[in-house]
Amino acid sequence: MSRVSHDLDRIEVRFDDSNLVANAGLLLVGTLVVRLGLEALIDASVRLGGRVGGAPPGRKVLTLVHAMVAGGSHIEHAEVLRSGASNKVLPHRVMAPSTLGTFLRSFTFGHVRQLEAVIGETLRRAWSMGAGPGRSRLVIDFDSTVCEVVGKLKSGAAFGYTKVLGYHPLLASRADTGEVLHARMRKGSANTARGARRFIEELVARVRRAGAVGEIVVRVDSGFWSKQTMATLARLDVRYTMAVRTGIRPSPPSPPSTSRTGSTSTTPSKARPRWASASTTVGA
Question: Are residue 244 and residue 164 in the same domain, yes or no?
Fold first, then answer.
């Protein structure tokens, strides 16, 4: 191979062509946003009037969503949507990262619940266009996960059973498509089953409002095993499969047996583990 005639530290890479699009795939997502009418829906549902950086919320929420679709994990990463001609493939005005930071700081828990209502209506609109299960069986995976963080001053971040600093949210996803149907943020030290009953109630109500009229099956991890969880699923007429822990006490030794020759032998039984993993499917 011939030697490069220029030193590498003298080469500068620029992205300054106004006709280039770094993330052309955003055109597909942007088209879906228009079909679902999301900007108008967010503006009508999330009420931040009177709060600094609050209005209008639609373009700000969608800027954050498209930044995440493009691979962003920090507010500053939204800047990629303003490079080249990327903003031309999006159906809304792209907001600056500093504006997004002010916007997010104006939120309260009530405003988060308003966004959850937006997600529920978005799901209903998407499923009404043919993406839903209709009368077919809907299988939902329900579990918790651990989201690691770096900063020690993040609100709610804590160490849990994994010994990792982070959050411990609840997630529910559709088994055949992978789409997230419901999510709930929790602090990192939250017990696995904390808030499970309310979460399941909201999940089932959401998918039924969205148009799921067939059988619903929820697959649940053993961390949520409890009489309360099973009673909730039964009350909601939801079938489920759940990994459970079965308490098994070690078997006592076998009684001594005496042979005809008069010798005595004791044959202890094999001790079984205290906890065993099992899987059971129960119809509500």
Answer: yes
